[in-house]
Amino acid sequence: MDRAEFDRFADEYRAVHATNIAASGESPEYFAEYKMRDFADEVRHAQIESQARWFLDFGTGIGNALPYFARYLPDAWLCGVDVSTRSLDIARTRAGSKSALLAFDGKTLPFADGTFAGAFACCVFHHIPHGEHLALLSELRRVMAPGALLMIYEHNPWNPLTVRAVKNCPFDENARLLSASALRSAVKNAGFNNPRTRYRVFFPAMLGALRPLETLLKAVPLGAQYYILARR
After folding, report:
1. In order of start, what are the domains of the chain with their CATH numbers?
2. Is 27 exposed, middle or buried, given 0-12, 13-18 or 19+ CB atoms closer than 10 A?
3. Model confidence, pTM
4. Minimum mean pLDDT range among 32-36, 146-150, 202-206
5. How many other C-beta atoms lie within 10 A of the C-beta of residue 194?
């Protein structure tokens, strides 16, 4: 998707997303929240000091992550970037006092080297032509401090329900899913250290009682989504 496409879907993004994931029994907010809970857990596990530190939301969209980042990392600051100015207008209505939102040109992030203690991208890279991934990952690495944490969430192309949902989603019409192994290789080639995969979302709402078991299934490549974790 380019800027014009993102701008076109910005105002109806939540409604379309909610309809598209109805079979899961969950709302878009559920998916946004667990990603930020995961990120905060990984930040603490990596022993990264978050107090008064800046983190980067790459492809922030309409700001789904903003309230949950503030909830789970209340001492940190968050900067969101996106190519869609209309999406950023909507995101600003959700932004708190410890967040900033900036447009970028899709190639060069408007930050100095080593600015961020960590960065995340939530289901963004499947919208970006695969040939551009390495350059953008290298650009992400540039603006991250030594030892900073990177987390990239993506849809799992080996999960048939995920594939169907993406195929039927209007704003995913130009998307190309990527495997965990391909994304992990790109992250490694961009210079990040020790990239590894964690699979997520194994149970719909009707089987919610089983969700505590997900911690035991992170290596099983059947989850609806996955994330790549690495260090700068």
Report:
1. 3-231 (3.40.50.150)
2. middle
3. 0.89
4. 202-206
5. 9
